[in-house]
Design brief:
The chain is an alpha+beta fold. It contains 3 helices and 4 strands, in the order βαββαβα. A 4-stranded antiparallel sheet has the order 2-3-1-4, covered by helices on one side. A hairpin with a 2-residue loop joins β2 and β3. The longest helix is centred in the first third of the chain and has 17 residues. The protein is globular.
């Protein structure tokens, strides 16, 4: 069997519970095909780089899969038939990444929020530049 990473985007107006149900459905297709889902990460509702089918945001989900190619092809086919999934991308990898993905590590390092721009990378605070009244 081969290793794959699949990222799919679900429409913004779908609830988080519905996203979980879609993820479970796609995972079951992999298991029925003789594979396993090694990792399942919900990256949250994120801004899209450009509008896709009139959507500006989408729920991102990552699946790390160890399965035969037929199971992955069937999962992709059914995902394309689902109207709630607006994009899907599957990439074959040499090995599955252990631990959280880069996106999840970045979220936990910054505490789920972006840093104020007046903070330095080392965590030191510097004074905000003062505005001049003109």
């Amino acid at each position: 069997m081969a290793f794959y990473e699949t990222v799919f985007i679900v429409r913004q107006d779908v609830s988080a519970k519905q996203v979980e149900a879609i993820t479970e459905e796609l995972s079951n297709i992999i298991v029925e095909g003789g594979g396993r889902v090694a990792k399942n990460e919900y990256w949250g509702l994120r801004q899209l780089a450009y509008r896709i089918q009139k959507n500006r945001k989408g729920h991102y989900v990552l699946l790390a899969i160890d399965a035969p190619s037929e199971a992955v092809k069937e999962m992709e086919r059914r995902a394309r038939l689902n109207e709630d999934i607006i994009r899907i991308m599957t990439v074959r990898t040499e090995e599955l990444e252990e631990g959280p993905s880069v996106v999840m590590r970045a979220k936990t390092e910054r505490g789920g929020r972006g840093r104020p721009r007046f903070e330095r990378e080392r965590g030191e605070r510097r004074e905000r530049p003062e505005r001049r009244a003109e």
